[in-house]
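Recap quiz, item 2
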Amino acid sequence: MTALANLTPHLLNGVSLGLMFALIALGFMLIVGVMEVINLAHGSLFALGAYFAIFIVGLNLGVGIEARYALAFFLAPLGVALVGMVLEVAMRRTYGRDPLYGLLLTFGAALVIEELIRLVWGSTEKQLPLPPDLSGAMLIGGFIYSKYRLYASGAAVVLILLLYLFLEKTPYGAMIKAGAHDSEMVRALGINLTRLRLFVFALGAALAGLAGIVLAPIWGVRPHVGVDAVVPAFLIIVLGGVGSFWGAVVAGVLVGIVVAVTGAYASEWSLLSMYLLLIALVTWRARGLFGKKTVLEN
Amino acid sequence: MKRRKLLQMLAAGSAFYGPWKVHHAWAQAPQKKPLVIGLTMDASGQFGASGTSERLGAMMAIREFNEKGGVLGRHIEALHIDTETTPATGSRVAERMITRNEVAFLIGGLSSGVANAIGQVAQKYGVVYLNSNSSSPTESGRDCKRVKFVWDGNGTNFAQAIVKNAIKVNGGNWALLTNDYIWGHNTSKATRELVVKNGGRVLDELMVPQGTRDFSSFLLKLQQMKPQVVAAAVGGDDFRAMRQQVLQTKLDRQFAWVNNQQDWEDVYGLGAEAAFGVFGTTWYYRFDLPGVKEFVEKYKKTFPGMQVKNPGNTFYNGYVATRELLRCVEEAGTTSNIAIIKKLEGRKMTARDRMQHHDAWIDPATHQVQQTIYMATYNDKPAETDDIFKILSNVAPADIVDPDAPKACKMASYQETPSYEQ
């Protein structure tokens, strides 16, 4: 009983951490799913979201921190979406070619964005100021827990649901899913694939930026913070099954729980545990948790 | 004077002066080969920010010497390659600098893993290497080298300065948070030994893998353990993320935190509260000591518009290490490695010269600079924005000598060390 009581806070903490991991992976999943491009600049777009938010919150607009934070929450992802659109335009010449071209281009873009961040904001650590209501600690089950983490988990749930509704209940979502399934057929049906790709890339970039804003007060903000985001994002979409929305969410939560529990009971394994989980799961089920069967597997 | 005579004189003058003007090098003595110093500092990775500062420190010292005409009549050039907080990169960079760039000396090191890797390459070629800022006790103990000199206080020095007092003030039940690499391991080992020696006990040790960004499970575990003191040996970006999360949960007020050593760059610009707990440092920009004000002004003048407005301990170490090395070259009248090593071994440096409270020296048995260690905490009454440290006390180097280092340090002899001169 005591063991279970000790374990429970770590499991709950793992779920909260996992939701944030899922949020990081969603934009990545969208771009891989529709465009079959592994966007290595995802981490830099994540960092850019945090920096844009710091810039907006720091503006002297004559309104309180709450209003500036809310503004940043909406405007910063839009800014990142614009950067994503520029990146997509640059990528067009790589479509239909060896995937290595896209990989190299996004890798180069990641380096460029990171250096631009350094030039504009410098190399030193930054902090995203938070409204007082989101800061501080609270007591849950006898444990001190960060209020902000609960807010971040809540924000992740809301964003995941909104994206799900967008993909499932709107015609744009249907087009995106169709594009992921068979882009040539989508083009044959008269849908402007070029515009669809631009939109998807912008949406994926905006999601990366949003994740950056949500995670900034937890991880801190520095030019290379994106590197910390891109690796788990990649791992989660492989674990969940490439292109699977709920796969990414479930895999994110699973990774969160594994990292949190090992952090508490075998701390030296806490970072490695997610990779071990990937190896174990891919060995057992190569297409990931919710990945579709390929013709070869039938 | 006739017109023809004037033209003849002009022609003769031009014939003589022309080549001297166009090929002015002919008129000079042969230029001496520049003295190239390899700066092996991290510009990225866990210690990227601190590595940048120590590089600037070394460059300011080099600039000072160049303004005086260099050393031994040779202009000093700095060559920097990012060691990326990765031992393999450190090793590769050192090898390249020595074999291709023919550097005379190597300076730089934040991560003890990287410093150890560079030290091994330096010893192979006999190149004098100054580990300016990495502070694992092994650097001047098990991994000491004849060519390597360690300029920062190490984990044992800091632990000795803090632990006894912390047990007395806060209690004997300790938990250790240890960055899972050489510096973390050895610093926590030293802390553990001192805790036990002073009648305390270690409830548990949580290993923090390098690259950890989420500390929530560690913080929950600490709450379950209920220690009186948490001794953290976590550095660089990992520490920044941890600090952010500790402050968010206000856990800085739940336990007494002992943060071993706190680098200026890890807390800079984040407000006084960011420097929570008690921690050690080797220098502070607001010391009321001769030369400090001028040193800070020089930093600002040399590097105008820097985000870090005032120099910190890693900049200071980069500066004093480089300056001392160049002084040794001047005194020895050569860049020959054995001559320089002999100049550095046992070298005494006055408190005034080093802008510290006690005289320092380089222990010939370990090659570590024995220097003043300062206990500090966050400053609740800052005189200005950057005034985030409150210096609590200073400890003389003789009181915090690492007793295990000389026993563990087995250096190659002079004869076993390859000769090297550039």
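The two ends of chain B are 57 Å apart (CA to CA).
Chain B is about 40% helix and 15% strand.
End of item.
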